[in-house]
From TrEMBL:
Organism superkingdom: Bacteria
Naturally occurring in which organism (per UniProt): Caenimonas sedimenti
Residues covered by the VOC domain: 4-119
Name of the molecule in the record: Glyoxalase
PROSITE patterns attached to this UniProt entry: VOC
Length: 126
């Protein structure tokens, strides 16, 4: 019955900083969001709102909870790495054993762990 993931939701300590992280570094686009009666944002990939951000509630003490991380399929490894290098946001870049998928791991401004997966054929050179 399940045919895909609809969206993740992140609770933001600072809504503007969180949106900037996901738009400027991760590469999502801010898009339309219905008036839900509270502050927030919907961030899109390929025309779909895949990340919802709450801007009206406190971040829970156990920030990650039982979800370890969220992973996105990505393109443009050299450009993404350059954005991260210029931003000063810490990250870890490695190749997955066996499949050789490039994996970039980082944390958003709220402590959520984010993984970006790039095709093994990508290189670090632009």
């Amino acid at each position: 019955m399940i045919h895909g993931m609809n969206h993740f939701t992140v609770i933001a300590e600072n809504l503007d900083e969180t949106v900037k992280f996901y738009v400027d570094l991760i590469g999502l686009q801010q898009g339309p969001r219905p008036d839900l009666g509270f502050a927030g944002a919907w961030l899109y990939a390929d025309g779909r709102p895949i990340l919802h951000v709450y801007g009206d509630r406190p971040v829970p003490a156990g920030r990650a909870g039982v979800i370890d991380h969220m992973a996105f399929s990505a393109r443009g490894l050299p450009e993404t790495k350059a954005r991260f290098d210029a931003s000063g946001v810490p990250y870890q870049l490695k190749r997955q054993a066996g499949a050789l998928t490039w994996q970039l791991f980082c944390h958003d401004p709220n402590g959520a762990k984010v993984e970006l997966d790039f095709d093994p054929a990508e290189t670090l050179e632009a």
